[in-house]
Amino acid sequence: MFKAARILVAFDEKDESKSALIKAIELTKRLGSKLFIAHVQEVKISPPYETINDEPIIYEDSTEEALASAKQVLNENQLTAEIAILEGDPANAILDHAEQLGADLIITGTRDQNRIKKLLFGSVSDKISTESEIPVLIIK
């Protein structure tokens, strides 16, 4: 039987990541694992002409909403988890965090992208599964 003491799930509040979180909760309960949730903040820097004290303006993202959504799903399933807010490239941030935690499994959702967009840009879940040294479960 597969064993995973530490499960890391990538969460961004979209339906696909909610499905991934629910699957992670099921596996955590079944395997007696510890659950970790990672949300990667999307830091968007404005064009150079919009500055305050020579610093670019950083627009807020949906981090608070994502955290509230993750906590709600955890509460509904009567489970606790450590939640981390990461910054940077989503795939790299998730992979680095998994390594720091000593995670045994990464769970992520995937979106249906059109073929051209997927070919040109790839997806976060593709990059995680390709570059990860530990098992990755991708939930559709």
TrEMBL record:
A Pfam family that the UniProt record links to this protein: Usp
CDD domains: USP-like
Domain UspA: residue ranges: 6-140
Leader sequence residues: none
Origin: domain of life: Bacteria
PANTHER family: STRESS RESPONSE PROTEIN NHAX, UNIVERSAL STRESS PROTEIN UP12
Protein family membership: Belongs to the universal stress protein A family.
Protein name, UniProt field: Universal stress protein
